[in-house]
Amino acid sequence: MTARRRSGAAKRPHVIVLGPQGDSPTLPAVCEDLVADGRLARDGVLATITAGWQEREGELGRLEADTGRKTLDLGLYARAETVAEEDPELAAGHTAVQSRLKELRRAYNRRLAGAMTSLAELNRLEGDATVLDAEREDALEELRRLDARHLARVAELRAAYLDEFAPHDRPVVRQQRRAIGSALKGVDVVAIAGGHVATLLNRLRLFDVAPLLAKKTIVAWSAGAMVLGERVALFHDRPPWGPGNAEMFEHGLGVLEGVMFFPHATRRLDLEDVVRTRRLARRFAPDTCVLLDPGSRMAFAADGTMSASDAFRLAADGSRSPADSRAA
User: Rounded to whole angstroms, what are the CA distances from 85 to 31, 74, 198, 289, 317?
Assistant: First the structure.
């Protein structure tokens, strides 16, 4: 892999982002590299976050077999269930805000469908480019304003929930967070797996896990990679019901700046449709859309350097290039 340095990058954990782990997982090779780099002891325990697997959380037999090392799952999904049982008031507040967020998402998707249809029709419209290009650009800007407004409304609803229920001040949440912190003592590497991205993100937020990982090496893939950016998009160009619209979903943890990750990119995106890829890249700018497939690997060092192999980014013209061809 080659390396580049981000100008003025803020101090952050050492993060390795991988493509989806399937029949040919790359996590074992990463663990060996971390041992060689001195970031992971030869017999060191690998902490895991598998909350995105929901009821399957902690089923780590294959991961342990692949890596040949013991694992310690932090149990965020189960801990959240404990919180709900011991603090029904907080659980009710969480259910209420999730219901409002679902209603907001439903309304946003109605508006998004109209904006995407309008933009697609303008792109197909033939005529004087000196007139139509300005209209197309304005339609794209309207789409970006809709995305930004949606994220702002999401933040408003979450802020109201935090103000009313102060989850981080609740005794049971504080108890569980202390237990997570204790479990992380002596652990150098934390692996964040994929699964249901909303479930994963909500549990990471509930226990304010990101600060606990500040001095760790993080290895993440699939939904685990998606939540590390500042924004999270849901996407699928080939759903069973027809061409899909990528949607702005949530704020991420912000561990990594300026990137949005798209796992299973080749399977879930129509990368041969340059009109769609150009729209995706320009819509989510200034963030870089990073395409992750099995075998992809990126490393974001604490000093701001970035390296990559078999990972690609989308340029503003819809073309693909190696992710390390410029700072992400």
Answer: 37, 19, 20, 39, 51
**Nearest CA among 31, 71, 33, 67 for reference residue 50:** 71
CB atoms within 10 A of CB 182: 9
Question: Which single residue is written with the structure tokens 């304003």?
Answer: 145
Q: What angle do CA 115, 287, 49 make, to 5 degrees?
A: 105
From start to end of 167-252, where are the E strands?
189-192, 217-221, 231-234, 247-251
The span from the CA of 282 to the CA of 258, in Å, is 13
Mean predicted confidence (pLDDT) in 194-223: 97
H-helix or E-strand containing 17? strand 14-18
Alpha carbon distance 76, 91 (integer Å) = 15
The H or E element containing residue 34 is helix 27-37
> Both tokens of residue 186?
């002596």
One-letter identity of residue 211:
P
- Tell me if 180 sits within 8 A of 74, measured CB to CB: yes
Q: What is the pLDDT of residues 45-58, one digit of tens each?
A: 999 999 999 999 99
Q: How far apart are CA 205 and CA 196, in angstroms?
A: 14
Q: What are residue 18's DSSP bridge partners?
A: 221, 297
At residue 3, φ and ψ (nearest 5 deg) are -130, 150
- The kind and range of the H/E element at 5 are strand 2-5
Report, as an integer, the average pLDDT of 233-241.
84
* 27 closest CA partner among 276, 185, 222, 244: 222
- Residues 277-325 have pLDDT tens digits of 999 999 999 999 999 999 999 999 988 889 999 999 999 999 999 998 7
Strand runs labelled E in 256-325 = 259-263, 288-292, 297-300, 305-309, 312-314, 320-322
Average pLDDT for 186-194: 95
- Of 320, 313, 316, the closest CA to residue 291 belongs to 313
Q: What are phi and psi of 230, to 5 degrees?
A: -85, -25
